[in-house]
Design a protein that fits this description.
By secondary structure, the chain is of the alpha/beta class. It has a single domain, classed as Acetylglutamate kinase-like (Carbamate kinase, 3-Layer(aba) Sandwich).
């Protein structure tokens, strides 16, 4: 499968690297270098990052936060991570632009599909922050929405695990990995690839998802080049 334009979804937790909280500068630099390497091969890239390394709206509600305010705090956490990635990409010599789902100039430009596509066509990385701009939606759903909007060929979900397994491989040593799996099978088996809203959006709009381990340096390039190291989720 050839990829001209992709949506790269990164988890906030992965940005912590070896830390307990916040951003590991080494991990951030590795991500920036991997993204730049792929962009130099002519692949157009948009990035959506989670905010779980700083604040997660849903877990905030269990601590007494109002859900809407908690989710808004989570959106701001994604903006912090996006600015950090933007800074690392700039330092690596890769042009990029930060878009936000809610207005907050001069922090970032207010997102629109056409501005993001124009940015990518110029060779910039379009970093899309702030989730969907609405509470009750995760950054998984934001990734699905943005991937569909920008007409990406696929969504690449970079995680700590190297694909989709029959069970959580960190908890079940007998779990086996799928090379490819359909959206329906993900539903029927109750697998946690992404939340249901995001998975449904990808299925209904035929946006394939490639789940792979982003924390092993060089994997983004390998998976884009078609190496068999992740799991393809498809119709």
């Amino acid at each position: 499968m050839q990829f001209k334009r992709i949506l790269l979804k990164l988890s906030g937790e992965s940005l912590m690297g070896g830390k307990q909280y916040g951003i590991d500068e080494m991990r951030l630099r590795e991500y920036a270098d991997q993204i730049r390497e792929v962009a130099q091969k002519g692949v157009e890239i948009a990035v959506v990052i989670g905010g779980g390394n700083i604040f997660r709206g849903l877990s905030g509600t269990s601590k007494g936060f109002d859900r809407v305010k908690g989710d808004q705090m989570g959106m701001l956490a994604t903006v912090i991570n996006s600015l950090a990635l933007s800074s690392a990409l700039t330092a690596a010599g890769q042009k990029n632009r930060v878009f936000t789902a809610v207005r907050m100039e001069p922090v970032g430009e207010f997102y629109s599909k056409w501005k993001a596509i124009e940015s990518m066509e110029k060779g910039e990385i379009a970093i899309i922050a702030g989730g969907t701009g609405n509470p009750f939606f995760t950054t998984d759903t934001a990734s699905a929405l943005r991937g569909i909007e920008i007409e990406a060929d696929a969504m690449f979900k970079g995680t700590r695990v190297d694909g989709v397994y029959t069970a959580d491989p960190e908890k079940d040593p007998a779990a086996t990995k799928f090379k490819s799996i359909t959206f329906d099978e993900v539903y029927n088996r109750g697998l946690k690839v992404m939340d249901l809203t995001a998975t449904t959006m990808c299925k209904e709009n035929n946006l394939p998802i490639v789940v792979f381990d982003m924390d092993s340096y060089g994997n983004l390039k390998r998976v884009i080049e078609g190496e068999d190291i992740g799991t393809l989720v498809h119709l």
